[in-house]
Amino acid sequence: MHFKTADLCDEHSEKIQILSPALISYGGKPKFYGQIVTLKLFEDNSLLRDILSDPGDGRVIVVDGGGSMRCALLGDMLASKAVQNGWSGLIINGCIRDSAEIHKMDIGIRALGTHPLKSVKKGIGEKNLPVNFACVEFRPGNYLYADEDGILVTQDSLLPS
Known about the structure:
Blueprint: H1 5-12, E1 16-18, E2 24-25, E3 32-40, H2 46-52, E4 60-64, E5 72-74, H3 76-84, E6 89-96, H4 99-103, E7 108-114, E8 126-127, E9 131-133, E10 136-138, E11 143-147, E12 150-154
Parallel strand pairs: 3-4, 4-6, 5-6, 6-7
Antiparallel strand pairs: 1-12, 2-7, 3-8, 3-11, 9-10, 11-12
């Protein structure tokens, strides 16, 4: 994985969206990229649990959790499932828990913060629709690049196949 978001910004400024620097890195992999799958949910991680059971094929899940700071949408069990099934990373507009364990896992995870309370399980949410947060519109099939300097989103892949 040879890219730097700063270089991608320099080379492709007309093609990229840059996230506002509000998300904290929690996973053990600070640099990750992949095609985007989107989820929209609120304080209910049932849909996230379902999608993490599918093969990730190096993709990135973008979860618009409405910016809720009242519970966690991801914990160590779901993060472990993401690693096992080949997901490259998760971007969560909400909180996670079990951050010490997640930090040891080979996956990229960015979230607003941590919260010890787990989410409810009512099965409410939507997937594969455009979501907006941190000054970016995330569309299913777009590409996300994250490293220590920031997070970028593009319509097309910027890396050679």
